[in-house]
Amino acid sequence: MSVQQKNHRIAVLDFGGQYAHLIANRIRRLGVYSEIAASSASAEELSRFRGIIFSGSPFSCCDENSPRFDPAVLDLNVPILGLCYGHQLLMKQCGGKVGKGSVRGEYGRAFMKRVNPSSLFDGIDDEEPIWMSHGDMVLHLPEGFTVIGSTPDCRFAAVADETRKIYGLQFHPEVTDTPHGMKILDNFLRICGCEKTWGSRIFLEEISRAITQACAGRNVFLFVSGGVDSTVAFTLLNRILGTKRVLGLHIDNGLMRRGESNTVLDYMREHGFDNLRVVDAAEDFLGALAGITDPEKKREIIGARFLAVKDRAFGDLGLDPDQWVLAQGTIYPDTIESAGTEHADRIKTHHNRVDPILDLIRRGLVIEPLAKLYKDEVRELGVSLGLPHGLIWRHPFPGPGLGVRILCSDGTALPIPGDDRIGLEAIVSPAGYRASILPLRSVGVQGDERTYAHPALIEGKCTWEALDGLSTRITNSIRSVNRVVYRLTGTNTPSEYRLIKACVTVERLERLRTVDDIVIRALHASGEYETVWQMPVVLLPLVDRRGGSCVVLRPIVSQEAMTARFVPLRRETIDTIIREAAAIDGIGDLFYDITNKPPGTIEWE
Ligand code: XMP
Asked: Do 138 and 210 fall into the same domain?
């Protein structure tokens, strides 16, 4: 019997909060399958779940237009857990009152004292550190609810109606800063009566059935980039359907890392997969990208080229396109970030979601075996499929490859508001630093909305801790800035940096590829490759006074790529990168990205 039939699953109602995915992922880590559902989902749609969790939101539930839930959900007779906004909304829709408290809000660590007993807090200390982030708060409880936990600034930090099994927490149990958060979520799953069946084994059983059904009478082809997602998907499909019915296409699009195509091919051959073809399509991709500067256009072109090259390869191999479905290694967060959940803005189009692919999806010609999994689950599946450690722990690499790390420009410097320059100066100069706003833009995500704004550049001797604080202060208060970089090398004054007309060219790619290669080698050599989750290297259309192109290093740590923190590398590693990059012709100053996500995304476009 499948997890679906058994109904042992949890819905996370997404009100647009940053942590909806984190909640769903935590529930799965506890062994119960969970799905993100739209906040507008009807009670009928939600009736197949054993329990429902309401996420946070960038909205205030006091606003008229803020998202609500179907009141009939309360009659489903399943346990409900509201978190942060979800807690406030639950209390409000049950008849309580929400508004501003006596303090402006609570942000960060707080201590909760347990008040009345509750099964939600079994195994929890009488006083617990918790993580808060809220402006509004619950002022009056609805009938039937009792308070089970309070902080000095928030009387109704945790509430319960034990009879109806409805709970509300003002804090976030899903973040690691609430040390016993997992225990609380686990208690909720127990209250829901969920069996802990979710994991690689059950996933394998279910996906095998689903794929066998979806591919009945047809074969499958898949683009194999060499990243963990496509490698796991390829191995999985080979395992389920056999190598005769699967064809892997590795397209060298000219946007790969150094030596990538050979590494992929060698690995697959070593593991007995003779059903992988390599197509050299660098000229094709680079030709289509010539002269293009708009980031979304670049993504569209790259996505569409993959399909065109596939069609050509099919022709060359004499394969009947009607007999083959396209498989993609898309994972769960990719499907959500691109489509944009109901209350979250579209961040950027994932290359697996460009129009021609959406058309194929609509026609039932695409299968996505990993579409329900988070990255950590894909890795776990990779382990159970017997993939080697080094391959499973490769850094994620975006489908459009270096194409999204080579920033382009038509050379027109974007205007920067004068007030923002003054505001930036006011933040950095008292601390003895210099800062400027760069005349280009990168993607960010702030308050669940997509931003396309300027990076600020900080100079001066500074500790990582101080830089972290400065970065947050700057992006919180300067409207036209969504990202902050710290200058590692060079002596240029801000006015000496020049924005240039720059597109995707072989020459620029080669420069970027060389620095990227230096970085990857340095991380392996220092043993930091696996402590860093991902480290994009970004080539800017910005040159210093000698005409050298500026390059950004962006090492981050993350759990699911939905949120990320910049990470300081060891000084010796940075020095190695600086020394080796200085020897490359055409490379100018190096910048270190000190932005977390939010407000900056991991990639720059
Ligand atoms: P962002 O930049 O949105 O990235 O914080 C989150 C994760 O997704 C990867 N990424 C992509 N992967 N195709 C992909 O296969 C894409 O178009 C794409 N865009 C971003 C990014 O590298 C990070 O791991």
From this structure: no
| pLDDT for res 343 | 46
User: Does the annotation mark 377 as catalytic?
Assistant: no
Question: What's residue 341's pLDDT?
Answer: 47
Residue of 603, 604, 605 to mutate, ligand 1, most atoms within 8 A of C-beta:
603
Q: Which residue has the tokens 């319960």?
A: 160
313 in a structural domain: yes
Q: What is the pLDDT of residues 466-503, one digit of tens each?
A: 999 999 889 988 999 999 999 999 999 999 999 999 99
Read off φ and ψ for residue 148, nearest 5 degrees. -120, -10
Supply the pTM of this predicted model.
0.81
| 443 CA: nearest ligand 1 atom | 2
Under a CB-based contact definition with an 8 Å cutoff, are residues 306 and 223 in contact? yes
174 annotated active-site:
yes
Q: Two tokens at 304?
A: 């569409």
Quick one: 328 and 362 in the same domain? yes
Length in residues, the chain: 605
Q: How many angstroms from the chain centroid is the CA of residue 507?
A: 30
β-bridge mates for residue 130, sequence order: 110
Q: Give me the catalytic one of 61, 84, 154, 215.
A: 84
Which of 334, 345, 351 is the best mutation target for the ligand 1 pocket, counting ligand atoms within 8 Å of the beta carbon and taking the most? 334
Instruction: Name the residue with tokens 């006011």.
Output: 426
Task: Looking at the structure, tell me whether residues 468 and 349 fall in a common domain.
Answer: no
User: Exactly one of 172, 343, 350, 351 is catalytic; which is it?
Assistant: 172
pLDDT, position 200:
85
CATH number assigned to the domain comprising residue 123:
3.40.50.880
Say if 551 falls within a structural domain. Answer: yes
Q: How far apart are CA 379 and CA 233, in angstroms?
A: 11
**pLDDT above 80 for 115:** yes
Check if 603 is active-site. Answer: no
Which residue segment(s) compose the domain that 353 sits in? 200-401
- Same structural domain, 143 and 46: yes
- Minimum CA distance residue for ligand 1 atom 11: 398
Task: Give tens-digit pLDDT for 254-285.
Answer: 999 999 988 888 888 888 888 999 999 999 99
Tokens of 10: 């949890």
- According to DSSP, the β-strands at 154-161 and 246-252 are unpaired
Residue 446: inside a domain: yes
Query: What's the CA gap between 594 and 597, in Å, rounded?
Result: 10
Whether 603 maps to a domain, the answer reads: no
- pLDDT at 595 (0 to 100): 95
- Which residues does ligand 1 sit against, CB inside 6 Å? 299, 347, 350-351, 396, 398-400, 534, 561, 597, 601-603
Q: What is the pLDDT of residue 337?
A: 55
